[in-house]
Amino acid sequence: MTRKKVKLAYITNDAARKATYKKRKKGLIKKVSELSTLCDIDACAIIYSPYDTQPEVYPSPLGVQRILAKFKNMPEIEKSKKMVNQESFLRQRIAKVNEQLKKQKKENREKEITQLMFQGLADPNSLLGLSLLDLNDVDRMIDQYLKDINERMEKISLEQAVDEDYKPSVVVVQAEPTATAESSSAMQRYPKWIMDLMINSQLQQQQHNGLQHEDECYASL
Q: Which residues form the MADS-box domain (predicted)?
């Protein structure tokens, strides 16, 4: 079962607010403890509330004083590098949300123009009532699609040309079959077109040796 999303607003009921405070305070201190243990860092917490006479501190008063003293002795640039207050935090959140909204509007506009483009291809009369801005966006979308198609076609053509260049030429040679174990093992190790080339080379060598032998016989006569 999914947890119900909590509405971040001031709790007007006193009893509910006090119960929420105690529950959240315990969870916050637990998270600080886990962060310090898991990441081996110095972390402390000081919590003031109208329900306690003394502030709640973690890990201890001496531990808090040690960590605060260490923080005060740091250079000013290091202290303020990642420090945020409520105003700067909200500004960062607003900027992030605005960026997400801008991105979403762009995606929605692209989907809208894409739909108009395909509607125009099916029925050109559907473009008659569009504004000049919409027509310009449809024109840009068509140009982008054509560009993508041309790039894809060029890529396919290049791949086919490379495949043709590296396609091996097969030489078929009619040779007498040999039943030796060595040739059978070679047929299993190499592709057929390589074996054809090897057999062709052997036949040419045998023919050359035969002609050379005949020349020597004529010379002896």
A: 1-49
